[in-house]
Design brief:
The complex is a heterodimer of chains A (361) and B (343). Chain A contains 18 helices and eleven strands. Chain A is of the alpha/beta class. In chain A, α1 (8-25) runs parallel beside α13 (222-238), α2 packs parallel to α18 and α9 crosses α14 (257-266). The two termini of chain A are 24 Å apart. With 343 residues, chain B is α+β, with helices and mostly antiparallel strands. Chain B folds into two domains: 48-161, 60s Ribosomal Protein L30, Chain: A (2-Layer Sandwich); 165-330, Phosphoribosyl-aminoimidazole Synthetase, Chain A, domain 2. Chain B has helices spanning 2-9, 22-36, 39-42, 76-91, 110-127, 182-192, 208-217, 231-243, 258-267, 289-297, and strands spanning 48-52, 55-64, 70-71, 74-75, 97-105, 130-139, 147-156, 172-176, 223-225, 246-250, 281-285, 306-312, 319-322, 328-330. Helix content of chain B is 33%, strand content 23%. Chain B is globular and about 55 Å long. The chains are: A alpha/beta (361), B alpha+beta (343).
């Protein structure tokens, strides 16, 4: 944490202003949709500072968590067949499917590799060619440019043993789906800084204006988070809706045009299923036909089935902001980070894991 | 399909069982203690203490599987020697003798083996320990990866020295001998090729002299632990659980170098959960904290010694941190390990 963005005096001043807004307008509920926000709000102690003033609800901001069980089952089945090496991000490996996790498959002899970036997966494919390597690609707009770049490189290098199984998801359509339901009642949205670097502030304007909700793009340091909340409460008190930029040192209105072009070159929007939120139109990505040789689904015949979530698991409700994690009957009892039942307890960015690790009890 | 279904339900040893976090603790209590239970072992300290012929002896053993074998600031040889020397020191034994055993895979380069063993010899000499016995096994290529080293040490305890987690009590001060996480980041950066951490070296070092200095300055030290696997977070949680106390730390007081904190931010790691191999945590009565800090700072390995917190009578097993921005959070036991073979 950068010290300048955690200055206690500046934090106390922002907290004082938040308190005045709450004195006038009452306590607030704010949803964030970014795993890094989930974690940093706990780890920095900001959640405790805001107790009684602002309740921060975690939405579908963890890419591992929103991946449906059926996709995990498909990946487990593929790698257990022994036909491929599967590479993915660390947290993905431990998410239970209906017949075990990728980690279970690995301890049973399947070749599952953990990577930090899609380019690492590409390198593995180069190293062990001609053995097929499948990259299980999860991630929001933040991760997608790097995946697109790895595919562009694979194509230009004529690498024919590298494919991806895309489970990418897009944030604005998910926000639109959440805000159109009557279930969610919040005073505003804290919008994800990293995603916004790519898509820009402007990308949220239509949905927030249409739904009559204020939103502020927020950075990740404690003062970024407190500052964004203060802006949100100011918008609430003035009755403003739409989007404001609370992370101007990194985010512009337009976003990163080159990154979006890189995504657009390789992928096109497609209807997609989210854990907890169900099917949402144009909320995922599929490979364009020019890249169909890199589609693991086509090359290896992956079929994704509709699989129910584990019995008793309420990750779906947690991801919609409808249930605080500690109120799930399994939380901390049969579902812990060591033996997780649902993904929100597995992922280092999951809200159940964050409550479990850092929530003051 | 029936076979696959069965596969998920078979309980297997996972990498996380070796990570030093909660999963390791479950393995130890569920499998090891169940078979070996006795009073000395159940202290769950870094080593066991036994009285033999009227002399109290500390015994400790440690297997090392670090990958890569050579890393900035050390190698598996010096790490294995100092790992056991430090475990003995955490029991209060600062002199003694060592056993050194290796399991090498067929095909392992002889020059690398010589280099590792020479380094282990120099490390033992620096710590003032002699290696008085050993063992060598070679397994066919593919049955082990590279080189595994196990060291075992014994050392006598001075009169009145009684360092045990169970002795920690409310009112104790918690001291830390220097910046944390450098070993973890050094090994990780060598393995993963992280260029921005090029200047981080492992903190691996023998703590015997530092411990002697502290014990000479303070007569009633309650416990010492080196934060290896699972880091400071694991040590504090183990102590809090074993002693039935709470520990409160000031996060801003925990020294962390810029390179370590940068690596943690990039990789999403918690510096409090990263291993160090040449640092120690000291638990002792508040009144002795100043003398212990002065003693540590007078030692070449303790220049960065600071007080990081206090033991309180709060909920048993609870560890919390005051955060730099003015909030509060739980410091949980690291759950497992996504970064295996780091020490």
């Amino acid at each position: 944490m950068t010290e300048a963005f955690a200055d206690p005096a500046a934090a106390a001043a922002l907290l004082g202003r938040i308190r005045r807004h709450v004195d006038e307008g009452g306590p607030a509920g704010v949803m964030e949709v970014c795993g890094t926000h989930t974690v940093n709000i706990f780890r920095s102690g900001v959640r405790e500072m805001l107790r009684g003033l602002v309740e921060i609800i975690s939405g579908p901001g963890c890419p591992v968590c929103v991946t449906p069980t059926g996709h995990i089952d498909a990946a487990v089945e593929l790698v257990r067949s022994g036909r491929v090496t599967l590479a993915t991000f660390g947290d993905m490996v431990r998410v239970p499917g209906s017949r075990g996790s990728l980690a279970d498959a690995r301890s049973g002899g399947a070749d599952v590799r953990v990577v930090y970036s899609p380019l690492d997966a590409l390198r593995i494919a180069e190293d062990i060619a001609p053995r097929p390597v499948v990259f299980l690609a999860v991630g929001f707009e933040t991760t997608q440019p790097a995946v697109a770049a790895s595919l562009a490189r694979a194509k230009s290098g004529k690498l024919d043993n590298f494919t991806i199984f895309p489970v990418h998801r897009l944030i604005p359509p998910a926000l639109s789906a959440l805000l159109s339901s009557d279930e969610l009642s919040v005073d505003g949205l804290m919008l994800p800084g990293h995603v916004s670097v790519v898509i820009g502030c402007g990308a949220y304007e239509p949905v927030l204006t249409r739904r009559g909700v204020p939103g502020v793009v927020a950075g990740f340091e404690p003062l970024d988070i407190l500052g964004a909340l203060e802006m949100l409460l100011r918008m609430r008190s003035r009755g403003e809706v739409g989007v404001r930029n609370g992370y101007k040192r990194a985010v512009t209105d337009e976003g990163n045009e080159a990154a979006r072009r890189a995504i657009d070159e390789v992928f096109e929007p497609a209807d997609a299923v989210w854990r907890g939120l169900g099917a949402i139109p144009a909320s995922g990505l599929r490979l364009r036909s020019a890249y169909s040789d890199f589609d693991a689904g086509r090359v290896h015949g992956i079929s994704v089935r509709d699989v129910p979530d584990p019995p008793g698991c309420r990750c779906g409700d947690v991801l919609r902001g409808a249930l605080p994690p500690p109120e799930c009957g399994l939380f901390g009892v049969s579902c812990t980070p060591e033996s997780p039942v649902g993904p929100c307890m597995v992922s280092s960015e999951g809200s159940c894991a964050a409550y479990y690790h850092w929530g003051m009890r | 399909m029936g076979g696959e279904r069965g596969e998920a339900s078979v309980e297997r040893v996972l990498l996380a069982h070796g990570g030093g976090g909660r999963k390791s603790a479950q393995l130890i209590s569920g499998v090891m203690l169940a078979a070996f239970d006795n009073p000395a072992l159940s202290e769950l300290a870094d080593g066991g203490v036994v009285e033999l012929g009227g002399v109290r002896i500390a015994v400790s053993t440690d297997s090392h599987i670090v990958s890569p074998i050579f890393f900035p600031g050390g190698d598996i040889g010096s790490l294995a020697v100092w790992g056991t020397v430090n475990d003995l020191a955490m029991c209060g034994a600062t002199t003694g003798a060592l056993a050194f055993a290796v399991i090498a895979a067929e095909g392992f380069p002889m020059d690398d083996l010589r280099r590792v063993v020479r380094s282990a010899g120099a490390a033992a000499e620096r710590a003032g320990f002699a290696v008085i016995t050993g063992d060598t096994k070679v397994v066919p290529a593919g049955e082990a990866d590279g080189l595994f080293v196990t060291t075992t040490g014994v050392g006598p305890l001075a009169e009145g020295v009684d360092l045990r987690p169970a002795r920690v009590r409310p009112g104790d001060a918690v001291l830390l001998s220097g910046p944390v996480g450098e070993h973890g980041v050094a090994v990780l950066s060598e393995r993963e090729g992280l260029s921005f951490t090029a200047d981080v070296s492992s903190d691996s070092a023998p703590l015997s002299r530092l411990v002697e200095d502290v014990l000479a300055a303070c007569s009633d030290v309650h416990a010492m632990r080196d934060p290896t696997r699972g880091g400071v977070a694991a040590v504090l949680n183990e102590i809090a659980a074993r002693a039935g106390v709470s520990v409160e730390i000031d996060e801003a007081a925990v020294p962390i170098s810029d390179a370590v904190s940068g690596a943690c931010e990039l990789l999403g790691l918690d510096p409090l959960a990263l291993p160090s191999e040449g640092r120690c945590l000291v638990f002792l009565p508040e009144a002795d904290a100043g003398a212990a800090l002065a003693a540590m700072r007078g030692n070449e390995l303790g220049g960065g010694a600071v007080r990081i917190g206090s033991v309180t009578a709060g909920a048993a097993g609870m560890v919390s941190a005051a955060t730099p921005v003015g909030g509060r959070r739980i410091v949980d036991m690291p759950p497992g390990e996504l970064l295996p073979r780091i020490c």
